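Troubleshooting: if your tokenizer reports a length mismatch, compare against these two reference records.
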Amino acid sequence: MDHFEPSLFGFLRELESNNTRDWFQANKERYRADVQEPMLGFIASFAEPLREISPHFVASPKPVGGSMFRIYRDVRFSRDKSPYKTHAAAQFRHRRGRDVHAPGFYLHLEPGNVFMGAGLWHPSGSTLKSVRDAIVEHPEGWRRATRGLELSGDSLKRAPRGFDADHPLIDDLKRKDFVVMTPSSQRAACSSGFMDELVGACRRASPMMRFLTESVGLEF
């Protein structure tokens, strides 16, 4: 399977307007048929291309504990008590990564908002320090790894403790996330060849991913 059907986005659009447990329970079979199964099939198809990029990152089509994120929101600390996410997403993380904060590639499907991502999102303080130390130690390697990429995510307002505020790469050293995102479209996601688009985005990000992965002591 190399693309999705419009019914996936149709379901998510309806869910946005009917984000209640009663509605979802009444439409759970539609969710499985239109969203979950297509996403799991796509993840399974992505496994081999991902292995060619790096054998250490995993595309797991398991419905629970695999690459696909759960549809259920964690509302414990949120003012928004809507019980369900209105997007479908998957993270293809390092095989030694335990959670969403590990190095990984990412796919996001939402009506009007489709994109691919790669990098480290909200890593721990020790992981951040390892990446920052690697940038200071190998500045040219970092420049090569990120050439042509536009990084995004949160940043500190001041230089992190222990790092020179006048360092030529201070903007990157201030980063709290090391993430690159590639925008796509709902139309592209529903067209044959979308798999190739995802693979291409992951390949372009792979030099940065190699740098990040190796800087935290993992194999790429």
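Reference record two:
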Amino acid sequence: MLLKDKTAIIYGAGGAVGGAVARAFAREGAQVFLAGRTTEPLQIVAREIAAQGGKADIVPLDATVRDEIDRHIADIVGKSGRLDISFNAIALGETQGAPLIETKEETVLLPIDTAVKSHFLTAVAAARQMAKQRSGVILAITAQAARKPYRDVGGFGIAGSSIESLCRQLAVELGPQGIRVVCISSAGSPDTPGLKETWRKHAQNAGIDPDAFEQRIVDKTMLKRLPLLAEIGNVAAMMASDLASPITGAIINATCGEIAD
């Protein structure tokens, strides 16, 4: 198992991506701590992990509040003795479907502020513990819109670019302490609940039906498909593992080839 005896925290673990990553980590032997604002989705993921023989604890918390983050990490270390992996997949609260000139300032700034604040607070809190161990992996996830501009995505792409820049800055500062920082870039998983509604808005703006809009995205990829949630979980598990030990400061391209590095 890739993550045997590792301890991992997943912020936003009740969401589609966070849940997929949590299940992958647990499958690979990690003890996972599931964090999120709402208890019920965390309980669902925890039960799924337990049914497969994994270990999962849940903690309701707000990943934009420093005191809650710090207390949780202290609790994890108290139980497990260490923290090996931190993965942030919280929802950013973005609104898509309109051009910037028709969007309110607060609507554009919300996902940017949420992204920078949460990723900074969770990463720095994890790094303080990982520095004591001289090891650890901090992971984030963005989308292709962070590197390739798309119409009508509001603050979403800007927020993603901010996360990627923060990861690079953290990587150069934390590397000497044995801490790796990696960001995964996805093209959007078609099996994500709610994604179809976002695509529907974009399709309406483009004057085509939602299936045709999705096909446009697929056609842009080299593999002629989009990454499934389980695949993103697999990539995260690989990046968190010792098999990826020389990788840091990188944006891992999991877009099925929509972007070429």
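Descriptive notes for reference record two:
- The mean pLDDT is 95.
- The beta strands are 7-11, 31-36, 55-60, 85-88, 136-143, 179-186, 250-254.
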